[in-house]
Amino acid sequence: MRLNYILSDLGIGLKRNLSMTIAVVVTIWVSLSLFGSALLAREQVDLMKGNWYDKIQISVFLCTKDSGGRGCAGTEVTTEQKNRIKQVIESSPDTAPEGVFGETKKEAFDQFKKLYKDSPIVSTVTEDQMQESFRVKLKDPQRYQNLVSAVAGLPGVDTVQDLRQYLDPLFKALNGLQVGALVAAGLLLVAALMQISNTIRLAAYARRREIGIMRLVGASNFYIQLPFLLEAVLAALIGAVLACGTLWVGVYFVVMQRAAETFRVWQWVGAAETFQATLIMVVVGLVLAVVPTFLTTRKYLKV
Length: 303
Known about the structure:
Keywords: Cell cycle, Cell division, Cell membrane, Membrane, Transmembrane, Transmembrane helix. The protein is of the alpha+beta class. It is built from 9 helices and 4 strands; from the N terminus they run ααβαβαβαβαααα. The protein has helices at 2-16, 18-53, 79-91, 105-115, 145-152, 164-206, 208-216, 221-262, 271-297; strands spanning 58-62, 95-103, 133-138, 157-162. Helix 2 (18-53) crosses helix 8.
């Protein structure tokens, strides 16, 4: 009997506030979609940094027969030259302990084939065309100029690249987008919170006489609040499900089908990160429903 009453009360509340409920669903849908996107943006930046930014700061590419660097003179780097280059790198006070990683032509070619396994360009490149290199991790990434100056003019060195000069603008832009998305999502979540509060307030005000009678006959606070709570939770869950679906569709078509296929050099967010983000989104949606409902209906529970 009580369950029938609660469900009946829920149906009446949804009919009375249908337009407001739809507005709440749409607001939660949009805000949680943007919030989930910001969470994935943060994960994406962390993945990119994990692959490149925090591991390798300087790449020293060695000469091949076709290299045009000033230390090459049209000849392949010799073993003696490689040993000298490695000695200079390791003896630098800026090089981190165990911070020198050598990459052979075979390793470079294997990595190239892995990154471009589905591209026709693989068939046009041979292992002999790859460059050997040293990848150097620094104690202080800001102090890269000393090592670059020491290595750049050595015989056998083609080019020296500091990857941070290329990655810093990218990560700054990504971090800016991430902050912007979080701010926008936060504002929309506040809007959703206020909209839920207004919807519950209107519903409670319209039924204040019924609530007063229920309090006089001894109904508990939770029993009186339950229909309002279910109404808010239902709207929040519908909005959260739509937001989660939007996020999954976006990740599949934008990231997995396009970005991951086009930019193979990066590691991209996938199902694991998306699933984690959707769980957080559902929890946030439920909090948005439960907290304002309890706070808003409290004033109508006093006889």
